[in-house]
Amino acid sequence: MPSSVTMPMGQAASRPQTAANRYYRRFGLFERVQHAGLMFSFIGCALSGLPLLFPYTGWAKTIAGFMGGFHGAALVHRVCATIMGVVFVIHILQFLWRGLATGTLLSVLWGPNSLMPQPKDIVDIWQHMKFFLGKGPRPHFDRYTYWEKFDYMAVFWGMFIIGGSGLLLWFAMPLSAWLPGWVFNIATLIHGEEALLAVGFIFTIHFFNGHVRPEKFPMDMVIFTGRISDHELREERPLEFERLKREGRLASIEATPPAPGAVMFGRIVGGTALVLGILTVILIIYGVVMR
Amino acid sequence: MKPAALLRALFLVLAFGLASATSAKTAAAPKKEAPPADPNEACMMCHADASAKGAGGKSIGVDLAVFGKSVHGEMQIKCVDCHADVSADKLPHPEKLKPAACSNCHEDAVKHYTTTAHGKAVKDGKTAAATCHDCHGTHDIKRSKDPASMTNFVNIESTCGACHGNDKIVEQAHLPGGNIQAKYHDSIHNQLVEGKTAYNRAAPTCTSCHGTHNIQPKSEPDSRVARAHVPDTCGGCHQREKTVFDKGKHGQLRQAGNGAAPVCIDCHGAHTIKRASTAGWQNAVVGACGNCHDDKITSFRLTYHGKVTTLGPASVATCASCHGAHDVRPASDPLSTVNSANLLATCRNCHADAGPKLVSWDPHPQPKDRERSVVLYYTYIFMEILLAGVFLFFGLHTVLWAYRSFRNMAQRRQGGGH
Known about the structure:
The complex is a heterodimer of chains A (about 290) and B (about 425).
Chain A: H1 3-6, H2 9-14, E1 23-25, H3 29-53, H4 58-66, H5 69-102, H6 105-109, H7 119-132, H8 146-170, H9 172-175, H10 182-212, H11 222-225, E2 227-229, H12 230-236, H13 238-246, E3 254-255, H14 260-290
Antiparallel strand pairs in A: 1-2, 1-3
Helix pairs in contact in A: 3-4, 3-5, 3-10, 3-14, 4-5, 5-8, 8-10, 10-14, 12-13
Chain B: H1 2-33, H2 41-47, H3 64-69, H4 71-74, H5 79-82, H6 107-113, H7 117-123, H8 132-136, H9 156-164, H10 167-172, H11 180-185, H12 188-193, H13 206-210, H14 230-235, H15 239-247, H16 249-255, H17 264-268, H18 279-290, H19 294-300, H20 304-311, H21 319-323, H22 343-348, H23 374-414
């Protein structure tokens, strides 16, 4: 088990830094807040939208009832969608601002610090699969692994697809002065299918890759505390560790161990999201079977 | 014998009419002071005692006060006029008597009754079936317009319900339709009858639709509730709806003799009929349309309208919102609400801000039908492949990863690792 989860943090904070309880900063506050905003609005959209995808189930009526019926669920859905859209716009602006201000826009779009899929990722997928089958060593990952990039790009693509189709449906009537009606048939289909893809993916694959797989069980705290342990960085992202060491930047990102309060907060919030998500997947499977 | 009885009845009616015209109250008063004139005196020697019992232990008491207030009492009908097999000179009469002879006076009513569902059932030896007294009472029979009468419109529900609302009788006698009273009681019709809404004088009770001395099962072609006649029966009150219905596709199918054509009750229900303006009812009617238009409902369910109406009561478009209710017409008909010339106006009934291009929106999309919409078809195929691809790849990826992780953990534990 990763030491970051099992170690009593309160004691670690007061001790001198040793390799065993040394931490580095992986995510800044701004990134963590963005993830939290995304998480909150995503679950809100999922819970308020899924009843309309599976309206014939009892749970759909129950959940919609909790939100004050169909009109309440529609309101929750639009409020959460707006929050998600705002988070996305802020993210893009931050991207551009940081890239232009520091002159590192290119490194954001390409290279080891970029979330853009690159040739190495194809090699990594191949080697990782071979490793799963016991036919090779684990590939050496850099700052972002291929599955993390997929998570990111899936959300990025999803923002345009689900956000675009959602806006079309939201403002269908005024838009129908310019757009032919069949566009809204397409938007309805895409919005529902993409929603199933997003919800199904986040609540199973992302949860497994990021959190509940045996190495991270029950949760990886890094997105809540922003800190990664020395052990984890060396083990799971050796290329990044080597690069940081080579560039002499390790010391500059060294951080205090996660505060117990932050860990507790992460566990409660993240744990709630985890339980809600897995429950949602069960409801979806029930809905698909009952169709 | 019979013409004589009729004459007597006629005379009594006339006499009563005259008596009540002068003073009904004074007519009743002297009756008490002159008991010898009472033609029922001989009967009352035994039957006046309320606790009197026959040989079988059954009460034989007759409350003259009750009888006096009945229509027959007011008309001074004698006991032996109905209990015609009793003779005043041969008392006591035999223990077992024939049923009261209603037909002595009400010849036509009884004749009609024998042709009804009830009358035929009695003829077939079904003892549970209603005869005259089950609906009209015995010594307490009152005119139908009297609110205390069993056959007054406010009491019909409980009169018919004595059998058709009694679960035990319904079960034992296999009454068709189950507990009808329970279904009818909460209907809009009964709410009108009970005066919970205005216009209750015209409110329909059981007999308004089924008739009285002409009640027939719906299987009889000339029954008022036979499918072919339902619109006529309902149209008795709902003339405006009937006129519109007759002009619509459904009404025309019926007139052409199509037995499967929907009639009023197919959408509204019969005994459970609800106010049509409630969202809950409107959403439920979609299912009724689907009884015939199955494929149209399947495609409707793929739209926002169809999903919201499935989820629960909400005021969004159902079948009738676009197609109309009583005057459903095919799209080819220029008068149809879904005729291409009228589509935008139909959309704008709800969506006042609908743009002119909205009409190419398909309210019955079929993503699997390439002919219907190529774009929708290929979007559907693309999304299906995308979903299947992502979940297959990452599903496999996850299963393999979990396998490797657990293998490694087990090996580490065996190797004495931490």
